[in-house]
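pinging the channel bc i need a second pair of eyes. not urgent but kinda urgent?? the chain im working w is below, pasted from the shared doc
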Amino acid sequence: MSSAPIPETLTLGGLTLKSPFLLAPLEGVSDAGFRRLCFEQGAGLTFTEMIRARGLAKRNKSTIDLVDTFHKDVTTGIQLMTTSANELTDALGVLTELAKTTHPHFDNIVAVDLNFGCPSKDIVQIGAGPAMLKRRAKITSILEALKQAKTTTLPKLQSVSCKIRLGLNGKEMEHKVFLPVVEAAGGVGLDFITVHARHAGMRSRDPADWSAIAEAKARSTIPVIGNGDVRTRADAEKLKALSNCDGFLIARAAIESPFVFRALRGAGPALPTVDEVERERVRYEETAERLHTRDKYRQFHSDGFARLARLAKGEKVASVMPKNAHM
């Protein structure tokens, strides 16, 4: 398949992004300070970690606090996990109400993505995430509710989408249960779909099947974002050539170095200098202190900056991923 070069910008619904490289929703990682750094380094769109729509609908404080969309100058979306159209509608209604009252920073949400890919057992056991892919009527009703919410809820909401895996297991992947979902997303009028090229039983170290992204792109009427094993500009170029996907969702590479976004754009090295690490460490801590960022984020990123500083000095240091991350 022939493909055009990687574009410098990307349009997803009403959003025109400064780059086609998106920061994935990363549990225990994607706080406001980390998203700001990734955005400044070249991420076109950033997401909060996955948030349970049920918790929002029930006005659970811990769930509401995860929506830390404080930076109006950082293009930010939220990713929601839901099991029904009504639950999704209720959750977005709560966000809209709070944006007008006690949580004005919710007004900074410009995109909503639905998670149908998280392989966590507790997600699958309630019939959510990739367990939803075979339930075509139900998933279509949820996607329709999301499409309707684009014009009836959050005032700055400009892009709605979903993220999928290839199925619950190898059998579902072989039966290509993901392709009808790709068609449904386009049919209801979502702005894009992200395809994580692994099934839920695969580990992050198992090679992503990029051919599935090509299949999705061939069947899709909306932009397709490819996800899985893109760490370098060369990786992105290979995936683009194979699949002609429209953009790229970056997860593990961003955790290893938020500076990877400038490398993906061809604007600088993925490994920062010692001075750059120290400058961004201080900025992150100042942001975390001001926004009362949870300790789990602060500790993870403190360790991350320390690791980057050692790498910048030429030391060999192994990467560390959060234990609860599903990428």
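so The longest strand covers residues 109-116. and The chain has a mean pLDDT of 95. — does that match what u expected or am i reading it wrong
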